[in-house]
């Protein structure tokens, strides 16, 4: 079958690119906070401008094949919208890595290839597949704990040949995984003949995908024993009693030995130790309005809004669910900011809670990256301290 003329190929690419642009734009409306999709939308728009500005060469005896990033961008969209991919980072956070994410609830770096399988050779060329995987694995193992993935996710949107698949398994311990299994929905009731119906609705493009996982930790196949149970925290808060209430429950849910990381920022730390979050909201609401206005002045509405928010949705309960079973980390900048705010605005009990909280957090020298999981509490600041 003869190859289509260059003009037909170009028009087809333009139509596919416009279709992809519309699909990505629709997702950015439903998922406005996903940076990867916003970056992808800009790339697709740039690709569409490139295709619109291209002109077919009618004078050429043999039309040149169209050079376009469209296959890779389309594969990125399919992968980013896969049900097992959660919280993807911005695109290309590191050379050779398409994005970081939580894949099937575990931190991972995704490497995607949309090349023709016949052109994917397993050789030591500097720009080859083998070198790319080796460099990404080395970068992952050297990454700080806050951004270190547990696995590399290697995805080939057009399939992969036998030699690269064997090389991935033998040299890097890669294991092939099924991306279609996540599209299987919950089973419905069986019929009279005993058959059970399930929902299965994958993207048709996903059927050609081949995927592999590589464990980042050296010796990752070894069984890791669970960390020993943590002892309850005992602290004096003026009265000599042990730490109780929601703060004690919150601290008890963190696990210092866990491999799951939760990166907390300054506002989250303030919310954890704040008097409003630790039983002070009822006392605050019982104070006469005139006295409260005189105390907080221009911040009166802000503080009252925080009090109403705490009554409707207690911060420590919500945060406790987020950190449950995880090891919480903070960077030195957050420590400095947090200590300064507590020293300036915190009461005796808040300072005691802050001291106990810092003992249970792991300090990192560098701030968290965009790929790490950060729990942000909006509208919290110094005025949340009582």
Give a summary of the structure in a few sentences.
This protein has helices spanning 6-30, 35-53, 70-80, 129-142, 162-172, 245-253, 266-273, 281-286, 289-296, 300-312, 315-323, 332-345, 348-359, and strands spanning 85-86, 99-103, 106-113, 151-156, 175-177, 210-215, 261-264, 327-331, 362-364, 374-375. By secondary structure, it is of the alpha/beta class. It folds into 2 domains: 6-54 and 68-183 and 200-215, no CATH class; 245-384, no CATH class.
> Could you say which overall geometry the principal axes of the C-alpha atoms support?
elongated
Domain count, please report it. Answer: 2
Q: Nearest-angstrom radius of gyration?
A: 27 Å
Biggest sheet strand line-up: 1-2-3-4-6-5
The end-to-end span amounts to 77 Å
- Report the sheet-strand fraction: 5-15%
Helix content: 40-55%
Largest sheet: 6 strands, mixed
Please tally the β strands and state the result: 10
Poorly predicted runs are: 1-5, 196-200, 220-242, 367-386
Structural class: alpha/beta
Order of H and E elements = HHHEEEHEHEEHEHHHHHEHHEE
Number of helical segments with 4 or more residues: 13
How much is the average pLDDT?
A: 76
Domain DUF1308: 262-361
Protein name: DUF1308 domain-containing protein
InterPro entries: DUF1308
Which helices and strands, and how do they pair?
Layout (H helix, E strand, L loop, with lengths): L5 H25 L4 H19 L16 H11 L4 E2 L12 E5 L2 E8 L15 H14 L8 E6 L5 H11 L2 E3 L32 E6 L29 H9 L7 E4 L1 H8 L7 H6 L2 H8 L3 H13 L2 H9 L3 E5 H14 L2 H12 L2 E3 L9 E2 L11
Parallel strand pairs: 3-4, 7-8, 7-10, 8-9
Antiparallel strand pairs: 1-2, 2-3, 4-6, 5-6
Helix pairs in contact: 1-2, 2-3, 6-11, 7-12, 7-13, 12-13
